[in-house]
Amino acid sequence: MLPLLLLFGLLLLLLLCLQWRHPNHHLLPPGSMGWPYTGETFKLYTQNPNSFFSIRQKRYGDVFKTHILGCPCVMISSPEAARVVLVSKAHLFKPTYPPSKEKMIGPQALFFHQGPYHSRLKKLIQASFLPSAIKPSVSQIENIVLRLLPSWDNSQINTLQQLKRFAFDVAMISAFGDQQDLEIERIKHLYQCLEKGYNSMPLDLPGTPFRKAMKARKLLSETLGKLIEKRQRSNEYGGGLLAVLLGGDGDGDKVEKNKLSNSQIADNIIGVIFAAQDTTASVLTWILKYLHDDHHLLEAVKKEQDAIFEERVREGGRGLTWDDTRRMALTSRVIQETLRTASVLSFTFREAVEEVEFEGYLIPRGWKVLPLFRTIHHSAHFFPHPEKFDPSRFEVPPRPNTYMPFGNGVHSCPGSEMAKLEILILLHHLITGYRWKVVGEESGIQYGPFPVPKGGLPIKVFSRKNKITSLN
Ligand code: HEM
């Protein structure tokens, strides 16, 4: 038995020494590749990810190698190096996702692509989320909020789950406009079935969440296909991103040119809903926690929101406008600081398309490269006392390339203005009409996959006692 164990041990050691013996291994970035096959995956998933990154950054510097989830990786935590990967040499680093994610969302969604196809789609999606395009959604989003909040009154809710519902309803309007086609309810139902499989093991076996999600995905494509054909046949393209992808201008006018195929349209609609929902809901959940934990800050934000509310009352009980949302300076800084502190997208994945010379090191072709947004956002060098939640730090703009909650370069987020707008509208009505209390003692963070307060932040919601004159 002992000789066998010894032999096994020696074999393991040999593998450890040989596995990453790249011909130019002395040029690779410093760092440890961990154990054969598993690399440092267990360490990343059992330790607090913040300490995993910071321990290595201290030991090896801003660029270090490791081995995660079966892939050799280079992690990057300096703003300059992140800029090289995401902006100046972006063509050498393609986006990369697990194949199961690509299958579920749809392989033609823009974030899986580089080059002309990606730029063409990016232009269309950006056009659909420009401030001028989203201004008219203020009242639609407000209606969603005004339907949702009364259902929270005097109840205990799971903040994350409720805000996912909110972000989903807003994403549906962004995708399809507010036209209520027959297919919309079915699309909502099928998307929710698909979503249950997003974080599942990609096991294509009867009864697994993955198999069920893929079945929902197929039906979703068919239903989206029917809606696309219906809107194509009629002279009305409707509103939202779908209208833009169909080649209209969002107001129903047709422009026949370079049409996208129905499956390209469907994959990108699903992709945008996917990109919009959990990100926005997680950020909002953190905002509710930070405001709950800092009474003085909440009072100051209340003052800002109450002033706008009172103005609406004075002006005949009108609804919220785009201009009102531009006057929420402190609330906007709370959003900015939450995006920094919570860094819900802690990092992103790229893959070197060829052997790349990088900051004096060599990154072999096929290696994953991860710009670590969270580590940069938590560097005391760029954000003094980084663990302190302090919106006033955004009274002056952050140093270039140090603040990237929406990414940077060609793949940066086209939905950033939409996300901020929907957060402002929800906060306005929540803060002026209600107060909330976190339930339970649970502290800490859960990852699913984005970092959120443990248990999704259960809260109890009440109408505000000193509620200001309500609108009719
Ligand atoms: C607070 C909420 C949000 C955060 C923190 C966020 C963050 C990000 C980040 C960091 C990226 C870049 C990923 C990378 O470089 O690999 C990204 C991309 C993207 N986001 Fe967002 N996002 C948010 C909300 C939204 C919303 C509301 C939409 C749509 C309406 C959206 C649509 C997209 C799309 C389509 C991409 C892919 C862009 C491309 O590959 O060119 N996001 N987002």
From TrEMBL:
Annotated binding of heme, by residue: 413
Membrane topology, as annotated: Single-pass membrane protein
Broad enzyme group: oxidoreductase
Protein origin, superkingdom: Eukaryota
Listed cofactors: heme
Listed Pfam families: p450
Catalytic activity: 2-cis-(+)-abscisate + reduced [NADPH--hemoprotein reductase] + O2 = (+)-8'-hydroxyabscisate + oxidized [NADPH--hemoprotein reductase] + H2O + H(+)
Pathway linked to the protein: Plant hormone degradation; abscisic acid degradation
EC numbers for this chain: 1.14.14.137
Family named by the database record: Belongs to the cytochrome P450 family.
Protein name: (+)-abscisic acid 8'-hydroxylase
Protein's gene: LOC111452117
